[in-house]
Amino acid sequence: MNARFVALLGSINVGSNRLKMVDLRYALEREEFEDIETVAASRNVLFLHEDMPSEGLAEKIAWIVREEFDIDSEVVVMTRSELAAAIAENPFAHGPDAGEEKFVHTMFFLDQPGPTQIKALQIDHEGRGPERIAGGTKALHIDYVEGAGPSKLTGDFITRRLGIRGTARNIRSMKRILAKMDELDSQES
Fold first, then answer.
1. Of 3.30.70.1280, 3.40.47.10, 3.40.710.10, 3.30.870.10, which CATH number belongs to 2-79?
2. Is a pLDDT exceeding 60 seen at residue 14?
3. How does residue 189 score in pLDDT terms, banded at 50, 70 and 90?
4. 2-79 and 85-173 share one fold
5. Which residues are 38's β-sheet partners?
6. What is the pLDDT of residue 12?
7. Residues 6 or more apart from 23 whose CB is under 8 A from it?
8. Where are the chain's structural domains?
9. Average pLDDT of the chain to the nearest whole number
């Protein structure tokens, strides 16, 4: 039985890593991915695939992108419930201290950053800006407060401090992806 997943691709359409989604769709279809759609920007790919662990699918898509397009991309794959859980666990996405959806991000990783790594990142970033940081499940939750553009808390800064690469999405995009997954699943029922 096939299940619906979302793949979040990093390092795509940045600098020289340009990738047309029609080309990616064709490459994925050749590798038994079905019902492929992009949503909330081109780096988010919804698809159906034989039900298997998300990590295996992430490795498969990263391999396809590397082999077919010569792009080394961070790829995180999640089910609907995993994406919903990531939104729910983000302390800056809801409650009285919630930030603006466009400024609240989750940076997803393939590996779990340890509490010592998160604490070191918080200490290294102290005094560099107003951002708020919290660890999550294979994720880092960030409230950019004044926007990600002017922030010194960049993806490169985070990668250097944590020693692992990831790809980030704001809460607004994550909710749009979740809604699209629900819409596609209801059409299939």
1. 3.30.70.1280
2. no
3. low
4. yes
5. 45
6. 76
7. 68, 69
8. 2-79, 85-173
9. 91
38 pLDDT exceeds 90?
no
Q: Which two tokens stand for residue 111?
A: 């590996």
- Please identify, in words, the CATH class of the domain defined by 85-173: alpha beta
The residue-averaged pLDDT of 90-111 equals: 94
What count of residues does the chain have? Answer: 189
**Which phi-psi region, left, alpha or beta, contains residue 147 (left: φ > 0; alpha: ψ -120 to 50)?**
left
Distances (CA, A) of 134 to 38, 51, 82, 111, 126: 28, 31, 18, 16, 13
Strand runs (DSSP E) across 110-157, as ranges?
A: 132-136, 139-143
Q: Cite the beta strand spans of the chain per DSSP E.
A: 2-9, 34-38, 44-50, 75-79, 104-109, 132-136, 139-143, 166-170
- Among left, alpha and beta (phi > 0; psi -120 to 50; other), residue 127 is left
Confidence of residue 135 (pLDDT cuts 50, 70, 90): very high
Alpha-carbon span 65 to 59, nearest angstrom: 10
DSSP label at residue 112: P
